[in-house]
Amino acid sequence: MSNTQRAESIAHIKKVQENVAVTIGTIFALTMCTYFFTYAMLVDKGLSGALWMMGLSSVAMLLVLIKLKAVSFFLTRLWLGRRAGLRDTFATLTAADL
Question: What parts of the chain have a pLDDT lower than 50?
Fold first, then answer.
């Protein structure tokens, strides 16, 4: 693989990784907004199971957001890793490289 092909592959991977990260961030932000506006309703109805689910999933989302770059690289590798042109690039690439 030539250097220009490798640079194009890395640019494509980086663009897809950024799009995955934005998608994850948007979904989590909308979920957190929904949690914010439904919290009082759940407290009034006494649905403690739903409150626990909201709390635990909020912590899980926070942990994913802390490691967003690595998570988005993992998902990008799952999505694009089997393409013949990108397989060699993924073999030597890590999340820190992007």
Answer: none
